[in-house]
Amino acid sequence: MSESGLxxxxxxxxxxxxxxxxxxxxxxxxxxxxxxxETFDGxxxxxxxxxxxxxxxxxxxxxxxLDLQLALHHEPTEADHADARAIEAALDHAYPQIDGVGTLxxxxxxLLSDLERxxxxxxxxxxxxxxxxxxxxxxxxxxxxxxxxxxxxxxxxALALKRWRIRAAEAVTDADxxxxxxxxARRIVRTGFTLVMPRWGGxxxxxxxxxxxxxxxxxxxxxxxxxxxxxxxxPSADPAVLSTLIDDLGPWLxxxxxxxxxxxxxxxLENGS
Length: 273
Prior knowledge:
Blueprint lengths: L25 H14 L5 E7 L1 H4 L9 E7 L5 H17 L6 E7 H4 L8 H8 E5 L14 H8 L2 H14 L3 H27 L6 H11 L1 H15 L5 H23 L12
Parallel strand pairs: 2-3
Antiparallel strand pairs: 1-2, 1-4
C-alpha cells in the first residue's frame, strides 16, 4: 500500500488487518469474535468485521473504542440490536483498554445492493477487517478515489446537520455535548477529506491527515478543520464549539460539497448519528 492509501493498481487498499491490532487490544478482538459467534448462532450471522483505529494499529489504550460491523442474512430486528447491545456492554465492562463499543448491523442484501455499492459496500470492502465468516468484499468491486465515491459516502451532510441541531437543543449535560461534538467533528473532518479526495487522488482515515489535506485546497477553512480533528479525538462540552461545527463549518461544507460532487442518492430510511 502506498502513502496515499492506494494499491499498486490505483484502487483504494484495505486499510486494516488483524496482524496490525496492537497487543493491548488483541484480547478484546478475540473476545468479540467469541461473543459474536456464540450470540448470533442459528444462522443469523453471515460475517463480522472490526474497523477503526484498532485494526489500523493506531488505537490508544483507555481512549480508543471498539468498532464492529455485523453482516446478517436478514434485515436486523430489535432482537438483533438487543443482542448487539449486550455484547457491547459485556466487552466494555470487561476490558478497560477500550472506551466503549459500537456495532453496526446491516443485511447482506443491503451491503451488496446497487444503492449501497459506493457507501456501505465501500465501507465494508475498504475500511473493515474480516473477523468471522466469508468476506463480502470478494463480492464487491475495487474502488478508486472518484467523485462518485465522494458523493455517495458523504453527500448527505446536510441531513446530519439537521439531526445534530435537534440533539444540540436537547442536550442537557456536558456528557451529551461531548458525545455530540465527537460525532459531528469526526463526520465533518471525514467529509472535508472526501471533498478533496478526488483531487488529491488517495485515501486516508486519519483525522489529522484528513484535516491537513483539506487545508491544502481550502486554506481559509484549514484552521477550523484542524480544530475539528482535535475535537474528534478530544471531545468538548463547550456550546461554542458545537455552534462552530453545526452552524458555521458544517453548513459551509455541506453547500460546497453539493456544488462540487452533488447530493447523495436518497435512502428509503435515513439513519445515522
